[in-house]
Amino acid sequence: MSENDEILVSVEDGIKTLTINMPEKRNALSAANALRMAEEIEKSGDDGTRVVVMTGAGGAFCAGADLAQRGLENLGQSGPPPEQFMDDLITTTYHRLSTAVYRIPRPVIAAVDGDAAGFGCSLALNADITLASTRARFIEVFINIALIPDGGSTYILPKLVGLKKAMEMALTGEPVPAEEALRLNMVNRVYPPEDLEEKTLEWARKLADGPVKSMGVAKKTIYDAYLKDSEEALEMESRRQARLLTQPDFVQAVLSFFEKKKPTYS
């Protein structure tokens, strides 16, 4: 499968759909593919796109960052990459995608079927409208590999679910099922899996038929007021995550993940 096949882009009636297409990896997202999605979203304000839809193929939304991508595959032999390299990588790829979702002056919908884990959870929460199937789960799984939530989760999650629940999710990595996510204001609607695609299209068409430029102004105004310091939070996440990515606990956690055994932390 080529990189072009890993992010599918379709446009119909002003609705641009970005599908993460790596079901064999539960749609884990490499830095290169995060950048590709960011670039597609960034240009959506100028290419006739009226609504952006993000989704995943094969019964999963996104399992987070791809731990088998270039730069991490030889972690056990070469040790962790330099901290500045990781800081720059996070900022220019994954966090660029999060920022693009917030900044684009068009509505962005996330259609979540199956797991939205790690950065995938952040990406789903970044969307303006988040729709879920009944089998969706939202998991701040970072702690399982000795990291902190990123992609904006440290900022948006407490605002949605409250400080205590956000802390629980960050410190335990336990999944939040779709119905609980609806109660916690993490999603807008929950549908049966077989209805999610059609319901998402209904939402997208409804928004696309409206005054999307005015929606863009409304979106910016609401985010400027509600998420005023979100970019500062992304910068803080990136610096601290980069530091953790150089620590022995992260190396141990990733190696244990691939070896399917429980890690031992310092």
Summarize the structure in short.
With 266 residues, this protein is α/β, with parallel strands linked by helices. It has 12 helices and 9 strands.
Mean pLDDT score, rounded? Answer: 89
The value of Rg in angstroms is: 18 Å
Q: What gap, in angstroms, lies between the N and C termini? A: 38 Å
From the spread of the alpha carbons, the general shape counts as globular
Task: Please summarize the sheet with the most strands.
Answer: 6 strands, mixed
Number of domains: 1
What do these coordinates show?
- The chain is an alpha/beta fold and 266 residues long.
- The protein has a single domain, classed as 2-enoyl-CoA Hydratase, Chain A, domain 1 (Alpha-Beta Complex), CATH 3.90.226.
- Helix content is 50%, strand content 15%.
- The chain has a six-stranded mixed sheet with strand order 1-2-3-4-6-9, with helices on both faces. It has a three-stranded mixed sheet with strand order 5-7-8.
- Helix 2 links the parallel strand 2 and strand 3.
- The longest helix has 21 residues.
- The N and C termini lie far apart (38 Å).
